[in-house]
C-alpha cells in the first residue's frame, strides 16, 4: 500500500513543478513550491497556490518557479504607500539634507500616494507609472490649475525610482518598473535679467531700504537667497573686500517631530563653498549697514538676540525667506519693473559679467556652479555679443575696402 501511494503521488507531480494534490473535502487542487529558505533555521519556505483544475494549479506554480529561478520572486503584500514610508523613514533619514527630505516627503504625500499608494508593490507596473507621469504633466497641479512642469514630473520620478531601486536591492520586488518610463521633454525656462537701464532704476529704488545691502549682494556677488540670509559678520574680510559663503538659511521640517523651523544649513554642493571678491563700492554700503545694525542693537537692548547675522530682524532674529521675497517684490513694483524675480538678481550678475567678456570659468567660481555657464542658460546675452561681433566684423570689412591696397 505504501508503494502504491508513492506511485500515485509521482503521477500527480510533473517534472520540476512542485507538489500538486487534490483536497478531498472541496476537490480543489493545491500546489506547493519551495521559494527559499529561512536564514535562521535553514528550513524551506513554501508558497501555496490553488486552482479549480490541476492545470490551473500547475500553471501558477510554473510562473512562481520561473521567478524563483531568475531571482525575481517576491511574496510581499506591501502597498506602494507602505514601502515609500519605510524607504523614507528607515533608508533615507540620514542620507538626505533636511530640505531635500522635506521635498521628498511632500512629493510622496501630494503626488504619488493619492494615485498609486494603495497598489501592492509587487503589482506595480511600468504602464501604471507611465500613466501617473502623463496625468501629472497634463493636470497634476495641487491647486487644479493645469499640469506640472516637466522638471516637477522628473522630481516625482526621482523619488519613486529611488524607492523602487531600494525595493529591488532588498528583494521586495524582482525589478524596477519605473526604468521603462519616458518623462516629458524639459523646456528651459529663461530667467530674465535686468537691462543696464533697469538695473540703475532698481538700485536707485533700493536706496534707503533697510535690506538694501542684501539685494545688492545678489547684483554684485551673485549670491542665492539662502546664502545671503545665512551670512554672519566673520564671513566678511573688510581689508581684502571678500566674502566667504559657508552656509544657507533655510526653512526645514524636523525629521523627527515634523515641525517647521528656520535653520542655518550646510550648502548643497562642494562648489557652493567659495570666497569671492566684492566691489569697493559695495563694501562702503556694507559698512553703513553694519553701523545701522549696531544702532538697532542698542535700541532693542536686552531683548536683542545677537546671532552675529549680517541680515536679521530689528531684534536680531532670522529673516523669514518668504518675507525677504515680499520685500523684494515691493521694491520691484515700486521701481515699475515687470516680470522679474528675486533669482533674477543673480542672473543679472552673470549677465553683466558675460557682457564684459569675463571668462566662463571665472563666472563659475563666482556663483558656485558645478559646471561652467552654458550657452543654453544665457543665450540672450550671447546673441547680443554675437551681434556686436558681427558689427565689428562688418566694420573691419569696410575699413579694408576703403583702404588702398598695398603696392607690390
Detailed description of the structure:
Residues 5-16 have low confidence and may be disordered. With 408 residues, the protein is mainly alpha-helical. It is 49% helix and 11% strand. The protein is elongated. The longest helix has 24 residues, at 379-402. The chain has helices at residues 2-11, 54-70, 80-91, 98-116, 126-139, 150-169, 196-206, 212-221, 225-229, 280-300, 321-334, 343-355, 360-367, 379-402; strands at residues 19-22, 29-37, 44-51, 236-237, 242-245, 247-253, 260-266, 274-277.
Question: Main traits of this protein?
Answer:
mainly alpha, three-stranded antiparallel β-sheet, 11% strand, single chain
Concise summary:
The chain is built from 14 helices and eight strands. By secondary structure, the chain is mainly alpha-helical.
Output mean pLDDT: 86
Q: Proportion of β residues?
A: 5-15%
Q: Structural class from helices and strands? A: mainly alpha
The best one-word shape is elongated
End-to-end separation in angstroms reads 122 Å
Q: Roughly how much helix do the residues carry, as a percent range?
A: 40-55%
Number of strands: 8
Calculate Rg over CA atoms: 32 Å
Helices, by number, come to 14
Largest sheet: 3 strands, antiparallel
**Arrangement of strands in the largest sheet:** 1-2-3
Draw up the topology in text:
Elements: H1 2-11, E1 19-22, E2 29-37, E3 44-51, H2 54-70, H3 80-91, H4 98-116, H5 126-139, H6 150-169, H7 196-206, H8 212-221, H9 225-229, E4 236-237, E5 242-245, E6 247-253, E7 260-266, E8 274-277, H10 280-300, H11 321-334, H12 343-355, H13 360-367, H14 379-402
Antiparallel strand pairs: 1-2, 2-3, 4-5, 5-8, 6-7
Helix pairs in contact: 3-4, 3-6, 4-5, 4-6, 8-10, 8-12
Amino acid at each position: 500500500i505504501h508503494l502504491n501511494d508513492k506511485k500515485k503521488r509521482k503521477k500527480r507531480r510533473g517534472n520540476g513543478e512542485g507538489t500538486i494534490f487534490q483536497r478531498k473535502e472541496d476537490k480543489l487542487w493545491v500546489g506547493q513550491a519551495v521559494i527559499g529558505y529561512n536564514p535562521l533555521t535553514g528550513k524551506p519556505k513554501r508558497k501555496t497556490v490553488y486552482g479549480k483544475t490541476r492545470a490551473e494549479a500547475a500553471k501558477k506554480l510554473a510562473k512562481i518557479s520561473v521567478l524563483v529561478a531568475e531571482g525575481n520572486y517576491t511574496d510581499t503584500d506591501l502597498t506602494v504607500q507602505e514601502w515609500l514610508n519605510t524607504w523614507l523613514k528607515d533608508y533615507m533619514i540620514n542620507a538626505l539634507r533636511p530640505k531635500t527630505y522635506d521635498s521628498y516627503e511632500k512629493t510622496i504625500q501630494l503626488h504619488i500616494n493619492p494615485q498609486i499608494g494603495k497598489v501592492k508593490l509587487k503589482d506595480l507596473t511600468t504602464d501604471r507609472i507611465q500613466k501617473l507621469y502623463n496625468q501629472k504633466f497634463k493636470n497634476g497641479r495641487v491647486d487644479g490649475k493645469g499640469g506640472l512642469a516637466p522638471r516637477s514630473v522628473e522630481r516625482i520620478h526621482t523619488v519613486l525610482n529611488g524607492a523602487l531601486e531600494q525595493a529591488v536591492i532588498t528583494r521586495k520586488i524582482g525589478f524596477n518598473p519605473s526604468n521603462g518610463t519616458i518623462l516629458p521633454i524639459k523646456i528651459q525656462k529663461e530667467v530674465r535679467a535686468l537691462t543696464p537701464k533697469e538695473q540703475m532704476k532698481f538700485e536707485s529704488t533700493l536706496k534707503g531700504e533697510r535690506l538694501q545691502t542684501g539685494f545688492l549682494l545678489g547684483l554684485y556677488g551673485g549670491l542665492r537667497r539662502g546664502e545671503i540670509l545665512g551670512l554672519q559678520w566673520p564671513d566678511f574680510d573688510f581689508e581684502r573686500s571678500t566674502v566667504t559663503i559657508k552656509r544657507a538659511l533655510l526653512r526645514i521640517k524636523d525629521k523627527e517631530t515634523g515641525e517647521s523651523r528656520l535653520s542655518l544649513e550646510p550648502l548643497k554642493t562642494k562648489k557652493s563653498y567659495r570666497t569671492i571678491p566684492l566691489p569697493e563700492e559695495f563694501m562702503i554700503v556694507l559698512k553703513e549697514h553694519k553701523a545701522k545694525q549696531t544702532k538697532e542693537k542698542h535700541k532693542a537692548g536686552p531683548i536683542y538676540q545677537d546671532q552675529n547675522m549680517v541680515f536679521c530682524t530689528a531684534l536680531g532674529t532670522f529673516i523669514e525667506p518668504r518675507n525677504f521675497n515680499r520685500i523684494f517684490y515691493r521694491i520691484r513694483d515700486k521701481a515699475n519693473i515687470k516680470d522679474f524675480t528675486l533669482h533674477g538678481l543673480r542672473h543679472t550678475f552673470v549677465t553683466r559679467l558675460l557682457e564684459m567678456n569675463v571668462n566662463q570659468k571665472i563666472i563659475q567660481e563666482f556663483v558656485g556652479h558645478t559646471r561652467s555657464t552654458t550657452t543654453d542658460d544665457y543665450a540672450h546675452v550671447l546673441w547680443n555679443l554675437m551681434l556686436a561681433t558681427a558689427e565689428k566684423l562688418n566694420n573691419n570689412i569696410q575699413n579694408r575696402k576703403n583702404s588702398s591696397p598695398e603696392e607690390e
